[in-house]
Amino acid sequence: MNRRALVRRPSPRLAEGLVTHVDRVPIDVGLALRQWEAYVAALRSEGWETIEVPPAPDCPDSVFVEDTVVMYDDLAVIARPGADERRAEVTGTEQVLRDLGHRIAHVEAPGTLDGGDVLKHDGTVWVGLGGRTNQSGIDQLAAHLAPLGATVVAVPLTKALHLKSAVTALPDGTVVGWEEVVDDPDVWSSFLAVPEEPGSHVVLLDGSTVLMSAGAPRTRALYEERGLRVVTVDVTEFEKLEGCVTCLSVRLRG
Ligand SMILES: CN(C)C(=N)NCCC[C@H](N)C(=O)O
To answer: Which residues contact 64 (CB under 8 A, 6 or more apart)?
Structure first.
């Protein structure tokens, strides 16, 4: 299978990125760029072709490209970010996906939806209903994905920025989360609480390999004990802006 992922170079204005649930702390933009380059290199060395969405230098949060789209099979549902400041980011993503031949659908007003609120596994799509994504956005996503056989499930989200700030899924479908910010772990039949907040974010690189933050060594050991191969990257500068490993790419199918 052709493994491709969208990424987007950090804006020189990254330090002005939004913060909601954390205090603002200084960002080292030069270090962020090096961390981003290492993240992209890690994807490539794991066999992923990376495609750069054209940079959006005036959009401080544009490196968090995950929030601009939800991919399901060949369909790209272009998001409508819940934060006004991020609305302009979607145009570049849409153009790249059109050029790549994907079918395009949109979340329209009054709906809002951020890609970071969407967790997919095996035909089920959980969507965080919280500060960025509203019910109309979820209903529109459900309508777009229904013909593809997906079941969309709204999940309450009050303690974290995005659903994937709180939980992600391992290759076997176990949902891993930092329990302090998970509203209702019972949503998932197999929920595993992890011992470190950055450990709750994994990017699936293949059926037995995950990419995660270097900031969660105990969780890394836990995943390795479960038989996973783990690749780690430093993403401290993005974590200061409530970002994580998932936010920095969008994996494409086919
Ligand atoms: C899963 N996560 C967390 C994301 N997909 N996005 C993070 C966006 C962070 C940005 N400062 C913001 O506040 O929008």
So the answer is: 17, 116, 238, 241, 243, 247, 248
**pLDDT tens-digit profile of 67-126?**
999 999 999 999 999 999 999 999 999 999 999 999 999 999 999 999 999 999 999 999
Count how many residues are written for the chain. Answer: 254
Write the ipTM.
0.99
3-state class (DSSP) for residue 208:
coil
Question: Tell me, what DSSP letter sits at residue 77?
Answer: E
Active site residues: 162, 247
Q: How far is CA 153 from the centre of its chain?
A: 17
Lateral strand order in the sheet of 209-213: 203-206, 209-213, 229-233
Q: Is the separation of the CB atoms in 70 and 113 below 8 Å?
A: yes
Chain segment 188-205, per-residue pLDDT in tens = 999 999 999 999 999 999
Six-digit token pair at 157? 């989200």
Q: Which amino acid is at 151?
A: T
CA of 115, closest atom in ligand 1: 5
- 244 alpha carbon – ligand 1 mean position (Å): 8
82 lines ligand 1 (CB under 6 A): no
64 Cβ below 6 A of ligand 1:
yes
Which H or E run includes 225?
helix 217-225
